[in-house]
UniProtKB/TrEMBL annotation:
Region (Disordered): 126-145
One Pfam family recorded for the sequence: HTH_31
Organism annotation: Thauera sinica
CDD domains per the UniProt record, alphabetical: HTH_XRE
Domain HTH cro/C1-type positions: 22-75
Transmembrane segments: none
Name of this protein: Helix-turn-helix domain-containing protein
Database matches in SUPFAM superfamilies: lambda repressor-like DNA-binding domains
Compositionally biased spans, kind Polar residues: 134-145
Length: 145
């Protein structure tokens, strides 16, 4: 049985959750769930499930939305981003997933995408810094190690 996705937002700071942002962005564009789902390559039922928080969208879905000028950075963070930053962030995540030579869950890929967008926006994640220091992994500009 699928569990609802974790609220990708912080209700205590007033930011809407991921599923709320997805609905807001769809409505901002004046689209039905069916039409918006078609942009992402999914059915109306899948779009509804995403907006209800019952399933995570795939990175392919997010990439397809981005190609149709949907603000996927806003979906991920609740902050409107410039499209160049988003293009690079999503490209980085997809490249990283392919390079690792193993499969990642949609939830893991969305989480990485969110972290990359936050880093590009200047949001720091001390928990990731500790993990990187412990593993000896150094992340440099351009994605090198």
């Amino acid at each position: 049985m699928n569990q609802p996705i974790e609220q990708a937002g912080n209700p205590s700071d007033g930011r809407p959750t991921f599923q709320e942002r997805l609905r807001v962005e769809r409505e901002r564009l004046g689209m039905s769930q069916e039409a918006f789902g078609m942009l992402g390559g999914v059915s109306k039922a899948s779009q509804w499930m995403y907006e209800q928080g019952r399933h995570w969208p795939t990175t392919e879905y997010l990439e397809s939305l981005r190609q149709h000028r949907v603000d996927v950075g806003y979906l991920a963070t609740g902050i409107r981003q410039d499209t160049e930053t988003l293009r690079h962030a999503l490209g980085f995540v997809l490249k990283l997933a392919r390079q690792e030579g193993r499969s990642f869950s949609d939830e893991q890929l969305v989480s990485v995408f969110l972290a990359v967008i936050e880093a590009a926006s200047g949001v720091t994640r001390p928990d990731l810094g500790d993990r990187n220091a412990a593993s000896g992994t150094e992340v440099t500009q351009g994605g090198g190690r």
